[in-house]
Amino acid sequence: MSTREQLLGRVKDAAGSVVDSGATLVERGQVGAERLGEAIPPRLPSAKQAILGTLVVVIVLGTLVPLSFLVWTGLWSGYPGQLDAALTVGNFVRVYVGGFFDVAGLFTNSLTIAVGMTLTGMAVGLTFAWLFVRTNVPTKSWMELVLLSGQGIPGYIYAIMYITSYGPENGLLSTFLRETVGLDALPFSIFSPWGIAFVAGISVIPTFYLLTVPAIQDMNPALEEVSRIHGASTLGTIRSVSIPIIKPAILSAALVTFLYGLGEFAVVAILGARNGFDVYSTAIWKAIGSRFPPAYGEAAALGCSLLLVTLLLVWYYRRVTRRKSAFMTVTGRGYHSQHWDLGRWRWPVALALWTTLVVIWVVPTAVMVLASLHTTWFGHLDTSALTLTHYAEALANPQLRDAFANSLVVAGAGATLGTVLVVGMAYYTERTKARLRGVVDFLSLTPLAVPGIIMGSSLLFTFLWVGKVHSLFDLYGTLAIIVIGSVIVFIPVSSRIAVGNIVQIHSELEEAARIAGASWLQQMREIFLPLFRNTAAVIWFFLAIHIFQLLTIAVMTYTTDTVVVPVKLFQLYMFRPSIELVSAISTLIVGLTVLLLLGLRALGITFYDSGR
Amino acid sequence: MDGARDRRDSQAETEATTDRPQLTVRGLTKQFGDAFEVSDVDLSVGRDEIVALLGPSGCGKTTCLRCIAGVETPDDGEIIIDGERVFGANTSKPPERRDAGMVYQDYAIWPHKTVYENVVFPLHHADHDVPRDEYGARVASVLELMKIPELRDSPATELSGGEQQRTALARSLVHDPGLLLLDEPLSNLDRELRKHMRYELQRLQHELGVSILYVTHDQEEAFYLADRVLVMNDGRVVERGTPRELYQRPSTPFTRGFIGVRNRFRGSVEQVDGERLVRTNLVTFPLANADCVADADLDGDVVCFLRPDDVTVGQFAGKTDGRLELTGTVVAAGLLGDSYEVTVGFDGEDTQLVVHTEHYRDFDRGDEIRVQFQPKQLQVYAAENR
Question: Closest by alpha carbon to A418, among A548, A505, A313?
């Protein structure tokens, strides 16, 4: 081993031990809030035990029960809820041996999407993160604003944007090239597997950016300076010091996007429809939604093999991140990192970044808005065809109004339920020494392994069964089932926000209140909750916006009375191809989201605090 | 088992300054994983007494304090506050029912409340005799006592370190608890402020008459403030006594090392003409003249300690009067706080002697220097196997 490698090893160890000691300090700080509630000898549960216990039970049920029903449905010879049937492996045999699905093809396709998404997200997200945090590239705060606005746009709207901009027939770019250069076809197609993967990847760039920025910011710049002082070039330093130090953060971000990729539904369903390109999620959706009779058992059996892969990945992800770290936490320390001077490359680099942003986000958004203003969109501006009729239709259509009302109910109820659950869970795992907290912490991550379509079908199966038990549980066909599923899907991300922020509130503040005579409930009311109020608001709005936009759960569980906006939009595109109306609705959704985000930002609430 | 219990009881009784101590802790044990954080600790704090828990960081002193406050649950032992058992085999009272005040090292001032709201908190929640309509006056008088009445309505986030410290102290005293727990309350202050607050704490204790358990790693602080000091290491109490006893005749090697006796040299006891002489590489003297801490039948290898303050620089013209005189050369010299520190080396010997002198003298490296001391300033112990 060369001296340089030895030194590097030590740098790594030092960085590791800093992290470790930080962790133990936190642990130490937390020790003690434990078992406070067990003080009263009679075994009546204290308020603390009762409240936290209930929330934890709900989380455990929410993460485990649907998956059990998924497996059961896979092993059941009848429909979910049909009692006169028996356990069987028939479904599995038909799926994996009998060729009910082209499993190998589906797996290859899902893998293609996941790899393409991860590479796109990493290439763009990491480059931006690095240049913004570490260099003096000009206009970066504006660029960051554009990049983070992308977080407010759901995948299915990206797909629509890209069809209007880069689609082969009436896309703006292909029309332009055909009319000017006479080029018949673009050298790439957004309907090809890698094209779909790229568009899906665009939607995870902000996520990748946000997951890696804290690590880059938290890195002590002295580590890089020492490398420079001792003779390494800029590139040499990046390669041998910077990258190895932030490698865990990059790896965890890559794992998260890869998991999203394996379960990607909306972009594939919209863009893949043309060439009959299917992945796991779309195959399951079609097996249940467009077959008669629905192939419940086969769909469940198919989902099981994907779950096996994703659960392994989540287990590995947890090993990489070792709790608390990385996942969407607000960064604490923030070195006054001095920036690397790009010198005469400053403006060329800025220009390259702006070009990327324009091609990826600005043009597609603008073109979608433009398309929504035309009677029919032919890929170029036609002043004679400008109209607002699509907006009028979007606002006047009673079905759309019902969907909008349903979406508001789902978003509001889901955000409230989710916030309460997640804050309680984070308090339980971070502030108590309860024996189950490791299990609960792991369970809060497992929904990451369950793609939305599989979670949606699992809930469908679950309520087809438990609806038989008592009409109280018969939630099939109500908005409640969509609320429940949406909350479960976002538990991993929102619980990381909660955990990351609870850690920042020193437990001594709560202890001091107890010593000063307050009971646990009084302490919660006067100390913890006031201090946690801002984080709770952040979580609530984060959940509200994302649940409002969520397609997968609703598309598996809706009935005619419970159509929500994303489902309506999806149906309009799939079954009544009117890209102009769809663009108008999408523009309204994106516009409302961006307005809401800007309004919250003005109030000081930002979801994507990159620490500046 | 009974024997051990008896020993503890009798110990607790002899330590108590009054009939019923404010705080009694017996056999306190706390384990983290496999390691003992606190192991079988006994201690008591009498009425109006200040007891200091002194030890290096990680010795378990803070864990002890947290167990007493009730924010940590011990694995074993018994805690009695003001005659009431708050922790034992079948009881574990929550912190809010232990009648204590506590100041954290980082003060734990609630950032979303003003100074007034922070300080009035215990009045709203704890047991006390102050009627509700007198809360304002009570808080005002405590802030007066802390000399920060003007900060009453300041937001907590705008306080300096010293102001936070006073606010935390005010909060811990406002409901007149029987027991005050202080966890290194001065360690985050700068040197001058620390000295000042040390004095203020003593003043307060005299004015209010409150029992204090004080955790610190600073022996100066402990010896200045405390009526009694317990030295802790590796989760155990290794030595206890008044500051004077511990300073003058520390009985364990750990305490000697920790409270910083600087000069240490080895020697051996020899029988010469019926008299027992201690022979070291620097001096030889009769054992009877020295301050022999351990048993009288000291024999074989011994270790001698000599405090830098007990050595005088210079030469006496007249009778030596039993003094031991040495001539050496200056190895290093420099100002240290209020005194001047000289390190003296001796030809052909490894041993060096650190000497403190009040008079500033212009020594240079290599200068010849004479030093002397009384043999009774030498503390002789049996050799440690450390």
Answer: A548
